[in-house]
Specification:
With 121 residues, this protein is mainly beta. It has a domain of 69 residues: Jelly Rolls (Sandwich). The chain contains no helices and eleven strands. The chain is globular, with a radius of gyration of 13 Å. The N and C termini lie far apart (41 Å).
Length: 121
């Protein structure tokens, strides 16, 4: 058995500009087919529009509010929302709050990697 805790995860910045703390995956606990991380977009910030060539992602929002653009469609997001991002789908997060981070859990299958990420801006 492998067990970790989010409070022990070291934050790092991904290619899209979000700060993440990986709980399970290549950086932390050994996984074969997926990764799980908490991501954070600072108040007033946004990620770089990007896609993942092979990874499917699930975004489960845990705090704050903002917007997500998936392809040409844009929608508001808030805590409790879940968004499915199929492989190859361009996406971008926006935090519209002036004082609250937009936080989410991000599950990637296969696990997140910079090599699978294509920046579009």
């Amino acid at each position: 058995m492998h067990q970790g805790n989010l409070d022990d995860a070291q934050p790092f910045t991904t290619l899209d500009g979000s700060t993440i703390r990986e709980v399970a995956g290549p950086v932390s606990l050994p996984t074969e087919k997926q990764s799980l991380a908490e991501a954070s977009v600072p108040p007033g910030g946004s990620t770089i529009e990007h896609l993942h060539r092979t990874s499917e992602e699930l975004y489960f929002f845990t705090g704050g509010s903002g917007r997500i653009r998936v392809g040409a469609e844009e929608r508001p997001v808030r805590a409790g929302d879940c968004v499915v991002l199929p492989p190859g789908t361009p996406h971008k997060l926006f935090n519209d709050s002036p004082d609250t981070p937009l936080t989410l859990l991000c599950c990637c299958a296969p696990p997140y990697s910079d090599e699978d990420t294509e920046l579009l801006e």
